[in-house]
Design goal:
alpha/beta; 9 helices; globular; six-stranded parallel sheet
Length: 218
């Protein structure tokens, strides 16, 4: 019997920043020497991923720091004349006011279990987005609090410790197989994958098409 729900935020409750990333990549392409906007996007993601994977404990950097550094590196790599600080600000503004998935507020209203947010984005940005949409979870735990990012287990362990819950008492919901599902599994927490696009499942995982379907599991 589950006693609480852990939920990812971006990509699960609200939309990811994919459209903003595409727009910024296009701007860098148009003002630099990249062969295409997709080339910019791929380089930027690889650079961010490298920084991200090496950010934990004493080497931890916030999501804003990682995003700014990876973006600046990408602009320099492609010789773009774009203003990195201006583009970073556009990203940050999105994180604080992201569009919300249609069923998210209904899920919060109808879920009978306490909901805790477990997110890789910085605490201030998550809190701003929650306030913007009028959502009031039982608690919020971020990578900034744990000094570690999913799929590492520190953030899940922090959430369990601070909420007074055991791993088998929690169900984690997330949209990322590599971050949410893997990370929760490593922490001994059952997870459900939000698969809104109906992607083909290549591994053993419980998936649903939207948040309301999760209610059948609790």
């Amino acid at each position: 019997m589950y006693k609480a729900i852990f939920m990812d935020f971006y990509g699960t409750i609200v939309y990811e920043d994919g459209e903003v990333v595409k727009r910024i990549s296009q701007m860098i392409y148009e003002t630099g020497n990249a062969q295409s906007a997709s080339q910019v996007d791929v380089y930027w993601w690889k650079r961010f991923k490298t920084l991200f994977e090496n950010s934990y404990g004493e080497t931890f950097k916030t999501q804003r720091e990682l995003e700014t550094q990876s973006l600046m590196d990408t602009i320099a790599h492609f010789g773009s004349s774009e203003d990195g600080e201006k583009l970073s600000k556009e990203m940050f503004e999105y994180w604080m006011r992201p569009p919300i998935f249609e069923e998210s507020k209904q899920f919060f209203q109808e879920c009978t279990l306490p909901i805790y947010i477990v997110s890789n984005i910085d605490r201030a940005d998550v809190l701003a987005a929650l306030e913007y949409h009028g959502l009031n979870p039982q608690g919020v735990f971020t990578s900034e609090d744990a000094k570690s990012y999913k799929p590492r287990t520190e953030i899940f362990e922090l959430a369990l410790r601070m909420s007074g819950l055991k791993a088998n008492e929690v169900l984690h919901i997330g949209d990322s197989l590599s971050s949410d599902i893997k990370g929760a599994g490593l922490a001994g927490i059952k997870a459900i994958w939000i698969n809104r696009e109906g992607k083909e499942i290549t591994e053993v995982v419980t998936d649903v098409g939207n948040l309301m379907e999760v209610l059948t599991y609790i």
